[in-house]
């Protein structure tokens, strides 16, 4: 089973946007992204996770929607092999012991052009409630379900990554999710 993470995303930049049709969607891994930004020695450093999965349940209203996601921690990629290896070590993600980080939403409030998704983020078996600022952009052609984006800030020390003084404690997580519909059944929640 591949692990992955998604931290979900909805909202629309157009006031007339509507939710995609009700149903169960998976994140399209070719068009979706899980990224982060953190400062190292005061210099912004970006990275991403290449292996993740997400399940998005679209209900009749935003409040009836939910998201579950998983990210394979070993899939971290910053463009520098030595740094990636260090991030996979016990000092940070400890990928051999904790192969996945997960997110499960508990609520979504707001409007499609600006909403908050709150849920439980688990990294290294440590769980905290986090809130993502989200938006949904509807596909004007109507050929796809559109795109959800989400952003949140966390403290790495809250998740057991407390060593290494040159790296900022605060980091930002960015999600861009393009859903792909798999079912019209929406009554099953993880």
Q: Your description of this structure?
A:
By secondary structure, the protein is mostly beta strands. The protein has a single domain (23-183), classed as Beta Barrel (Lipocalin), CATH 2.40.128.110. It is 4% helix and 50% strand. The protein is built from one helix and twelve strands. The protein has one helix at residues 81-88; strands at residues 23-27, 33-40, 43-49, 52-58, 66-72, 76-77, 100-111, 114-123, 126-137, 147-155, 167-177, 179-183. Strands 6-3-2-11-10-9-8-7-5-4-1-12 form a twelve-stranded antiparallel sheet, with helices on one face. The protein is elongated. The two termini are 16 Å apart.
Key words describing this protein structure:
disordered C terminus; 190 residues; 1 helix; Lipocalin
Q: Helix and strand string, N-terminal first?
A: EEEEEEHEEEEEE
The number of domains is 1
Biggest sheet, spatial arrangement of strands? 6-3-2-11-10-9-8-7-5-4-1-12
Mean pLDDT: 86
Please tally the helical runs, counting DSSP H or I stretches of 4 or more residues.
1
Structural class given helices, strands, pairing?
A: mainly beta
| Radius of gyration, taken over Cα atoms and rounded to an integer in Å | 16 Å
Largest sheet: 12 strands, antiparallel
Query: Fraction of residues in helices?
Result: under 10%
**CATH class categorisation:** Mainly Beta
Span of the ends, CA to CA: 16 Å
CATH-level-4 superfamily name: Lipid/polyisoprenoid-binding, YceI-like
This entry's quaternary arrangement is single chain
- Strand fraction: over 45%
Question: Mind telling me which CATH architecture this is?
Answer: Beta Barrel
CATH topology: Lipocalin
SS elements, strand count = 12
């Amino acid at each position: 089973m591949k692990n992955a993470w998604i931290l979900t995303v909805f909202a629309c930049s157009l006031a007339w946007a509507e939710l995609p049709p009700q149903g169960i969607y998976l994140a399209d891994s070719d068009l979706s992204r899980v990224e982060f930004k953190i400062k190292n020695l005061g210099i912004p450093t970006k990275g991403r996770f290449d292996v993740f999965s997400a399940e998005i349940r679209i209900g009749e209203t935003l409040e009836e929607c939910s998201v579950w996601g998983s990210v394979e921690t070993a899939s971290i990629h910053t463009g520098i092999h030595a740094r990636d290896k260090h991030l996979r070590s016990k000092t940070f993600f400890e990928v051999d012991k904790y192969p996945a980080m997960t997110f499960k939403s508990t609520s979504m409030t707001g409007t499609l052009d600006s909403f908050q998704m709150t849920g439980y983020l688990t990294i290294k078996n440590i769980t905290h409630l986090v809130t993502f600022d989200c938006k949904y952009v509807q596909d004007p052609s109507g050929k796809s379900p559109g795109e959800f984006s989400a952003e949140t800030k966390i403290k790495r020390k809250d998740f057991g990554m407390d060593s290494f003084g040159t790296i900022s404690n605060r980091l930002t997580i960015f999600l861009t999710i393009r859903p792909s519909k798999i079912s019209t059944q929406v009554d099953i929640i993880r």
